[in-house]
Every structure is written in structure tokens, then in C-alpha cells.
Description:
Number of domains: 2
Strand order of the largest sheet: 2-1-3-12-11-4-5-10-8-9
Number of helices: 11
Pfam family, one: Iso_dh
Order of helices and strands: EHEHHEHEEEEHEHEHEHEEHHH
Bound molecules: 1,4-dihydronicotinamide adenine dinucleotide, magnesium ion
EC number: 1.1.1.83
Keywords: Manganese, Metal-binding, NAD, Oxidoreductase
Radius of gyration: 20 Å
Strand content: 15-25%
Catalytic activity: (R)-malate + NAD(+) = pyruvate + CO2 + NADH
Structural class: alpha/beta
CATH topology of the largest domain: Isopropylmalate Dehydrogenase
Helix content: 25-40%
Shape: globular
Organism: Virgibacillus necropolis
CATH architecture of the largest domain: 3-Layer(aba) Sandwich
Amino acid sequence: NETKKFRLAVIPGDGIGKEVVREGLRVLDHLAEESNGRFAFESDFFPWGCEYYLENGSMMDENGVEKLKDYDAIYFGAVGFPGVPDHISLWGLRIAICQGLDQWANIRPVEFLPGIPRRLNHPDVDSLNWVLIRENSEGEYSGVGGRNFSGRGPGKEVAVQSSLFTEHGCERIIRYAFDLARTRKRKKVTSVTKSNAQQYGMVLWDEVFVRVSKDYPDVETDQWLVDAMAAQFVLHPEELEVVVASNLFADILSDLGSALSGSLGIAASANLNPEGRNPSMFESVHGSAPDIAGKGIANPIGTIGSASLMLDHLGLTDESKRLDTAIEDTTRQGVLTRDLGGTYSTVQITDAIIKNLSEVK
Ligand code: NAI
Ligand code: MG
């Protein structure tokens, strides 16, 4: 029996990105070791990020996106550090990769792990879990716009930041949401826009949503404006199952979801190219957290959970499920980092997850 080899491109990035990716790789190595030669990971490291930018003037190699194409998956930490403007670092690395590799579906589950202090006062909090599907290729992050239009002086500057919505872009993410809903218990898709105020792009989205929904008569639908949806996350989250929204709105709602479920540090995500033409990228929802970087206290669960999404994507479904269980066991045992009110370090959380993995076969 030959060993199945998975080639990973690893981009730790900046700040706590480096600290949590290291932990995620320890977990992956453990799983590979345990598999007795059934599968293995071969990791290539790419030192891209803000330090790289300060030395080389760009966030990654000139043909960086091209270099990533041959890998089975990309494992990403976070980008952004004081000294490099955030729009440079984000556009130069994360968005460059997501858009360059057409990873148009960003999957962000909101999960309520056991043993974590609840920030949400809800009678049935343990049963809550929903997934945000974020359009990841256009919308508000299309980069269409400009500054410094001619004839304007200091104090009179004008900036234009446009959103771009294409029928194709809306349709593929909405269909993705419906297909996913069919695999889940409740079979419900909630679409989030702001089409009362944004009368072009978001109205197009709404129209596509209604049209596509006709192909899924077995799936329940719901349509919300984003401001009301923010309240719904807090007031009636039991109504949510698959929530599909534009690039910006789902970005904001996913931070809200992760905070409600305990901390930004536990939210995982997958940037998928569902057609499989290009590798997909797995990363936590949080950023590089410069305020806690270098202290060894970052919560690695978001990034380890993203490794679980990667395992599932690579067809290692059992390993993914076992890892999810080991993460749940760890929080249930009260092994928590500071963001969750605990005292354990980044490394200790991983040690506990690995120990629990050995116990869940
Ligand atoms: P952030 O997510 O880095 O941090 C927000 C707050 O949550 C901070 O107080 C931080 O300490 C805490 N936090 C985040 N992750 C944590 C973890 N794993 N464990 C414990 N606490 C955690 O967002 P912020 O502060 O707005 O941005 C910092 C930098 O990260 C900026 O440069 C920003 O552009 C970048 N960023 C990058 C992202 C990416 O690479 N995907 C996503 C979001 C922000
Ligand atoms: Mg975000």
C-alpha cells in the first residue's frame, strides 16, 4: 500500500499567524504519523508577509500566486502588522491569493464548543450551529475605485469605492449555499443583503437568489437586510442554518458569530475553489492580533479547526471528524486560552488536542 502524499503550501504570515500555524502543523503531523503510512503531508514554507514586504517591497514573490497552483492545499496564518498599511498587506497576500486562485466560496462555520463561557444568553445554546457562506471574489472587495481625482486639493479629496456584483458571481455562491443546505438537517438558506439602500448590486443578488431558489423546492428560504440580520444573530440564532452573504457583510457577520460563540480565536474557515481547478486555502477567521503576538497565548483552535476543514476537503473525512471531537473534548475539559477566560498557553492547547486525539479512535 502506497502512502498518499499531500503537498501543502504553508504561509504563516504575521503576528500570531506564525504561532498558530506551527500548532496546526503539529496536529497534522501527529495524524500522519498515526496513520501508519496511509497518508503524509509534505509542507513547503513561504515566508511571505509584512517582514517580507519591508525587505522586498512586495508581500509575496512576483509570481507568488502561480507558485501556489500545484499544491493540494494552502494553509494560511494571518497577515498584517504595524508598519505596513493594512490595505497593502491584505490586498498583497490574502486577497491576492483568494482572487488569484478563484477561491470564490469562503466557508465560515459558527460553532458553539462545550465548556466555553457563553456570551450568548440563549435557552438552547448547545444546539446552535450555523454556517456563513461568504462570496469571496467580488462584491465590496472588488477593488474598483480610486482616489486623487484631478483638480482636487488638500481637504477636498474624493475617494470612490465601488462594489461589483456579477450575475455569474452571485449565482455560483448562492447555488453553493443551496447545495450545502441540502446536506444539512434543516435545509434552510438565509440570504443577506442591503437591497433597500444598495439598489443595483444587491437587488441583482436578490433576483438571482429568488431565481436559483426555484431549483431547490425542498430547501426553505429566508431573505434579510444585513442590519436586521446582525440583531437576528443575537436574538434568534436558532433560525439560522446556512447564511449566504456578500464579501463585506459575511466578513462582519463572521466576527460577530465567532464572538457570540466565545472568541474570535476559535473560528475556522475555508476559501474554496469548488471546481478544484486551483488549490483551496484554509485559515482562521481572525487576523494577526499584534496586541498578543509573541506572548504564546494566542488561541490556536481557529487555525487547528481550519486544518480540520482542510482534512475534510482532502478526503480525510474520518480524521477531520476525530479532530473536531478532540477539539470539543479539550474545551469541555476546561483547557482554555486567555481569550476564553483560561490560563493555558497556545502550545498547551495543542498538546491537549493531540492527547485527546490519541484517545478518540
Ligand atoms: P484580529 O483578529 O487580529 O484581532 C482582534 C482581537 O481579537 C484582538 O484583541 C486579538 O488579540 C483578538 N484575537 C484574535 N485572534 C485571537 C486568537 N487566536 N487568540 C486570542 N485572541 C485573539 O483583528 P484586528 O486587530 O482588527 O487586526 C489585526 C491585523 O490583522 C490587521 O493588520 C488586520 O488587517 C489583519 N487581519 C488579517 C486577516 C487575515 O489575514 N485573514 C483578517 C483580519 C484582520
Ligand atoms: Mg474578517
